[in-house]
Task: structure prediction
Amino acid sequence: MADLSERLRGLVGKISNYVSITDKEVEEIVKDLQRSLLQADVDLDLVFDLSEKIKKKAKKEPEAGVSKREYLIKLIYDELVEILGGEEEEIKLEPYSILLMGLFGSGKTTTAGKLAYFYKSKGLDVVMVGCDFSRPAAFEQLQQVGEKVNVPVINGKDSKKAAKELEKHKGKVVIIDSAGRDALDKKLIEKIKEIDSNLKSEEKYLVIPGELGQDAKKQSEEFKKAVNVTGVIVTRMDSTAKGGATLTACKTAEAKVKFLTVGEKPQDLERYVPQRFVSRLLGFGDLQSLLEKFKFEEDKAKKIQEGELDLDLFYEQLVEMQKQGSIKKVVDMIPGFGQMKLPSGALDVGEEKMKKWKYIIDSMTHEERKNPEIIKKSRVERVAKGSGTTIQEVNELLSNFKKMKKMMKKMDPKKMKKFRGMGDLSKMFGG
Ligand SMILES: Nc1nc2c(ncn2[C@@H]2O[C@H](COP(=O)(O)OP(=O)(O)O)[C@@H](O)[C@H]2O)c(=O)[nH]1
Ligand SMILES: [Mg+2]
Result:
């Protein structure tokens, strides 16, 4: 895992260092990405698909306020999240019964202890049932695990008897450690079905080792065919370079990964959240701020589209527009917007005025900036005094704000969308 992560972080670094990003750079990055994923044992077709998607999407212009660099990193992030599972899977936090299945050595028994610890830490009572008697010490191992996490362990050699015993444990999360074998053969399937019919599990988790890589696809498909698998737990993610490939193989097999285990201790289990996983792969800190920025730009675009302009956003947009030159000029350049009858000089604010408007807005309360409609006479007086401006100047700002808000509402969202997929105003006006 560390290898893949290191390579992907290198890739992000490379993108950040490009002076500009043209098709050539995109091509280079995609090649690097391909190499990293293939070296980590990700399926060839999957890698090819992902590359094509990124190349195609990279041709689009980014949203306003977002650089091409950031856009490319976000693209890679999104596509990685997609092949690694997409959405996070739900985990119910209530008493129910979980059957763990898997081949020998996949990590069932230790995972049983980790799950017990997990549910206990969420305030639920837990009981475990040991149904593995295929190896001499298998049950004792589970008992030891139970002692470690302070959870009772029921002997499940006869699963009918164990079901009776379980009646004394109503209201608890039940974790069933089933038998393992070297391969999923008829005998194992029969055994699992017998355990399940007597103990009635609601969740049936397949436990697979992280080092399986691409082979995880075949294994999960086989298990799915034989029994009704409801989720997957991938173990030993801390000690394999193929964890990423295993997770992508699970996604391809439409097996839902619920948990990862990342060590030998009871607390070394975590919910599997594809977004978080990819963030970590790519270097969490950096990416977090980038994702927040995307969220911010999205929210802003949405606000504007819904006519929810407030004074903070208004001012921000004005600053952008000053950079672009007169709004009238900019509007004229956009096909379809040229006809919009803007009075000359509308919103074309000089530097001096911008400064004053900044002081005025700074003198307002949060409430006033969010709902400028409430700024009536006495508030206007207070703001003028506080900002060292005049009542006329405050009124002028407010009337310009109203104008802009009205204009935004009149715009056809579909038309606006054409301009760089709903960016901020400066971009909608052709920036
Ligand atoms: N490093 C590491 N080792 C693990 C992890 N999960 C399981 N193991 C080890 O994998 C081996 C097999 O685990 P076990 O639970 O006995 O597998 P079972 O045969 O399916 O019950 C044991 O040596 C465990 O300590 C993990 O997340 N990280
Ligand atoms: Mg075991």
The chain has 20 helices and eight strands. The mean pLDDT is 84.
